[in-house]
What does this fold into?
Amino acid sequence: MKHFDVIIIGAGVTGAAIARQLSRYSIKTAIIEKETDVSFGTSKANSGIIHAGFHSPPGMLKTELCIKGNRSFDILKEELGFSFERRGELVVAFNDEELQILKNLYAQGIKNRVHYLELIGTARLREMEPNLSEDIIGALYAPTAGIVEPYEYCFSLIENARQNGVAMFVNEKVAVIAKQLFGNFVIETDSGLKVSARFIVNAAGLHADEIASLAGITSFAITPRKGEEYLLDRRVGNLVTRIIFPVPTKDSKGMLVIPTVEGTVMVGPTAENINEKDNFSTTREGLRCVFENAKKMIPGIRLHDVITSFSGLRPVATGDDFIIGTTSVQGFINAAGIQSPGLTASPAIAQHVEDILVKEGLSLKVKSSWNPKRTPFIKLRHSIATRDYAGYIKNTAGNPGYNKLVCRCENITEAEVTEAVSRGHTTLDGIKFATRAGMGRCQGSFCTYRVLKLLEQQTGIPIEKITKKGGGSEIIKFPMGKGAPHE
Amino acid sequence: MNNNINVAIIGGGPAGLAAACTLYEQGICDVHIFEREHVLGGVLFQCIHNGFGIHHFKEELTGPEYAERYIQKVNKTDTFVHTDTAVIDLYRENEALTLVLLGSKEGLQVFTARAVILAMGCRERNRGNINIPGSRPAGIMTAGFAQRMVNLEGYLPGKEIIILGSGDIGLIMARRLSLEGVNVQGVVEIQPFPGGLTRNIVQCLNDFHIPLYLSHTISNIFGKQRIDSVEITAIDNQLEPDTKNRFTLPCDTLLLSVGLVPENELSVKAGVILDEATRGPVVDANCMTTVPGIFACGNVLHVHDIVDYVSEEAARAARTAAQFVNKSLTDKDGIRMLAGNLVRYMLPTKVYTGKPTIVSLRPITPVEDIVLYAKRNGEIVYKKKYQKILPSSMIQFELPALSGIEPVEVFFAGEET
Amino acid sequence: MTDTIICTVCPLGCSLIVEHKNKTIQSISGNRCKRGIAYGEQEILDPKRVVTTTVKIDGGIIPMLSVKTSAPVERGKMTEIVRSASQMRLHAPVEIGTVIEKNICSSGADLIATRNVAKISDSAC
Ligand SMILES: Cc1cc2nc3c(=O)[nH]c(=O)nc-3n(C[C@H](O)[C@H](O)[C@H](O)COP(=O)(O)OP(=O)(O)OC[C@H]3O[C@@H](n4cnc5c(N)ncnc54)[C@H](O)[C@@H]3O)c2cc1C
Ligand SMILES: Cc1cc2nc3c(=O)[nH]c(=O)nc-3n(C[C@H](O)[C@H](O)[C@H](O)COP(=O)(O)OP(=O)(O)OC[C@H]3O[C@@H](n4cnc5c(N)ncnc54)[C@H](O)[C@@H]3O)c2cc1C
Ligand code: SF4
It folds into this structure.
């Protein structure tokens, strides 16, 4: 049985940030994930906003970690090479009552020590965002807010962690947690894998309550709160430059209009408490609701620009705050209930968990070999955007894969797909999230076959066995001549 | 290699091929076709069914046969053919039309051309475009993707199939899959009339006893990993779902045949203005877009149901492109063309004095016994009676040569007495 | 017996009502022109279709060759022909028009290739 100093359960942004944080020390760390790829839980289905930190009151853990997390993103971007832009967020008010809420939010933000917050009037607002509704009478402006592609951020954390020696197990669902006499945990997965560890970090998102109860901890429960999001075509990508919020409600920050780093626009999310942890459906009502709200703020938004939709589940814990810390079981540490702004807070959560581990007696020494840098992909679409073709030719010389187009909507090359496979992505969705092949307006009707073929060539998995997102989600059922209905 | 060329044709489908043939006949040299696939022919090689060329070759060919005829013809010309070469950028720089190419052999190259013919075809609309609620499992794909998998690669998508949309591709796939032993459960169409040709309804559905649910839509998708069923709801006259009238059908695959959209990302980069109704470029009677020197034809201009018309349109575009490079295209002051009653779209938007022009249009809805009029200042300049018009059948007519500048309105109406 | 069928000869698509008994036509109505009568008779007495399908091909630039019957065949034979084609295996190159199988399934028509498939090495790539 393999032994580790720390095993992290769950490879969403929380687990990934912790893994990368611990990868700098000369300890043995592993991360276990039940899905085929990392970031396949809530971390791939959210708004991708690096929040400024004025939405929640001072004193809550999520507020403190949100503010700290936000400040870490410039250096993380520098080291890991994912896309991150500090676009700023605007909360807009339609009447005096809402203006009053803005003032309260402003005051809360100042208490939270959010930098550069401002209340602004319509003239400046129009100049900043000309497509906003005429009916808006004022806004709260937070220039420190930013946007990322959440899965790209998560993948880059994991890649860098693995590069620095963190062991990774995918397709392994933790089923049993036992404690041995001399204090180590033994973790067993449903496929029979057994590993042992001195510390467990529970970063299992929606299932963190179940993981805790495997260790005998029943102090909290996780309720899923669903959010539906709708992605719009690049054609309307210039409708907004900043993230546009309505004034918040009790349960959520409201339905937003979000520019993405990839030049598209997203509208959403809804907020609905549900019972099932595997209900990722979108609904007619959700769509209506999101568009009504978005149109109120940006009248130019149109339904027929939708290219795809998805929904994510916020793991809301009893008490409505993050649950991070030691438990009644020594060595078992929770990083649970990481609802919004969990993405923003993730770097600070990782630091916080490190501090707890040290307090619990784990000694951490930085490895001399630690490399904080991850090599980013060479992206044709970036060269097209800047028309820097000479640079592209220079950077890609010697690899003909960069001259073969796979996805025409997003201009993804064969070399990018190959690179994604070599970084551990073996499903269609994995390739899609790692490269964007199939994410554009045609949603894969052109490139799916090419990606399948490349996956077959590079992993040896026959096309009919390649899945969208793991077991049971095969794309194409059978080759003609093998199991086709005729035979 | 000299990267300053005479005419660039983007796309080697039937439109691009016909354009190349005509340019050759017109004596234009230094013509290049850029095609991102490994072979020429466009979408035709996956359309293995017959029904192509009846108009143009006066015989019934399959898609591949139609393509091969044109490829043969192009091979006899001196056209430069670049396959495995995608055009990834198109823009105007100091009056020159600049193309950025990504070729699997040559790598990234920048060319300039005196004229460009857009012949990029179209792409399929997908689930997101029509917003079907429900879960997001594997097994949902466009009919064209399935057609490619079956006919070119030899894979069957599933065993139990439902098709949303009664466009021709969906109908053709219903027959193709039925013949391969797949159970096609039904075709669901939101409109009260089928989207595809009558002939395909008969030979692709009726021959195989496949039910066609008109005025129905798919209102929910179920299944966690792979799709396992869909909910089908009847639609009332206002296109609102009738929630009392719904049922579920099991399936392992859902094919979407919900329409095609001209593929104009490149055109937009070049500054070409698109038409809201066709989603293709706005063109004049010369098939010239709003950017001088850029012409468009085939499915990139508007979605055609008959390939023969694609070839003809491409020949027309190529003739005027030839005049453009020869500097003999001198038309000015066009006559505006206005789409009127029952016309969903029409092109061109401008015709020129003294020249007859082929006009293409589609009606909004099926109507029987109706007259097509082209009128100007209250005077009828063209008129034709139709026993039946259908949105699925494009209508073409030749507008006679006109003088003056007053606009022409084209519309359908009852017979004037 | 009465059958309602749609005429496909022209885009009007008339609904033809065909009365028939023991393989003889008694009446046809609903047609807007004479061609509808001939179509109705043919469809009820001896419906025919051109079959198009694919055959596996090894060593070519693509793995499937598109084929068709050289003439319309009895509608009832379509499935049998497709099934028979799915059992065949060819080698590239194949030229358009090549007869793959004469008188396929005793239909009276030949199965012929509808495209060229070059050998993979022949096509420079
Ligand atoms: C609609 C929506 C919008 C949001 N927008 C924002 C935003 O704009 N900004 C922001 O900061 N935050 C946002 N959030 C919140 C943010 O997405 C989450 O806080 C964050 O993704 C949580 O990450 P996580 O790693 O804790 O959970 P997850 O990403 O869910 O990761 C948990 C992982 O644990 C794995 N796991 C579970 N059980 C087991 C087991 N038994 N064995 C092995 N592995 C297991 C799961 O498969 C999963 O991969 C949003 C959330 C939603 C739903
Ligand atoms: C499934 C289906 C069934 C049909 N059935 C019939 C029928 O029965 N009878 C009939 O008459 N008609 C039929 N049609 C219609 C007819 O086939 C099409 O109208 C015709 O193929 C359109 O020709 P095109 O050249 O405009 O487009 P396409 O055939 O789509 O060709 C466009 C070409 O451009 C290339 N291209 C695009 N962008 C780029 C780029 N950036 N760089 C390089 N190359 C590029 C593409 O790879 C493609 O090869 C059918 C169409 C479809 C899709
Ligand atoms: S009966 Fe005549 S008019 Fe009617 S569909 Fe047939 S051919 Fe056309």
